[in-house]
Amino acid sequence: MASLMEMKEIFRSADAVCFDVDSTVIREEGIDELAKFCGVGDAVAEMTRRAMGGSVTFKAALTARLGLIRPSYEQVQKLISDNPPQLTPGIRELVSRLHQRGVQVFLVSGGFQSIVEHVALQLNIPTANVFANRLKFYFNGEYAGFDETQPTSESGGKGKVITHLKEQFHFKKVVMIGDGATDMEACPPADCFIGFGGNVIRKQVKEKAKWYITHFDELLKELEER
């Protein structure tokens, strides 16, 4: 197991940094916001808490939550336009600094492609660097399920994305940053996991992560060390 000092060195010399999105890059949980928008907020928020704590499989929780919400295409688009995701303080500066250093930045999310791509646009991250779940709709715009072939639709999916990135781009050092159990379990294959508690603190992650931060300024300072 790498020491904290070794983890900091991995971060400073990383080829790629993968960020979780909900409650990490943005302040809210996208699926909870969608549920509130569709009038089933409380029931879905409780399911999210259980999923993020790792007590149920991610795919089971995603299926159950979407079965309750059943969002239409129109509702998803209206949510993005009326209540756009709020970036977490410091993330814009951190991503910009990583880009300046030639580090590839990816968004690896159990959230939804349409919302995550909106976030990527704000951070100058190409949409090709977004890995997220895709909602499916019928021709009339009604909810038709989600694409179960996407790796991030199930537990262990974020690790599969990182393995794919290492194989495709021959990255030597990949860092995963996130707030939840699905982020922590992506290391390995990630070479380093940084737990983030700036928006919500997940007890399990705070206790088990060797490197745990509550503000992105802490990572910016690490980059300035070199």
From TrEMBL:
Keyword Isomerase carried by entry: no
InterPro entries membership: HAD-like_SerB, HAD-like_sf, HAD_sf, PSP
Keywords (A to Z) from UniProt: Amino-acid biosynthesis, Hydrolase, Magnesium, Metal-binding, Serine biosynthesis
Pathway: Amino-acid biosynthesis; L-serine biosynthesis; L-serine from 3-phospho-D-glycerate: step 3/3
Reactions listed under catalytic activity: O-phospho-D-serine + H2O = D-serine + phosphate; O-phospho-L-serine + H2O = L-serine + phosphate
Domain of life: Eukaryota
GO CC aspect terms: cytoplasm
Required cofactor names: Mg(2+)
Active site: 20, 22
GO biological process terms on file: L-serine biosynthetic process
Record EC number: 3.1.3.3
Entry similarity comment: Belongs to the HAD-like hydrolase superfamily. SerB family.
Function: Catalyzes the last irreversible step in the biosynthesis of L-serine from carbohydrates, the dephosphorylation of O-phospho-L-serine to L-serine. L-serine can then be used in protein synthesis, to produce other amino acids, in nucleotide metabolism or in glutathione synthesis, or can be racemized to D-serine, a neuromodulator. May also act on O-phospho-D-serine.
Protein's name in the database: Phosphoserine phosphatase
Species of provenance: Bucco capensis
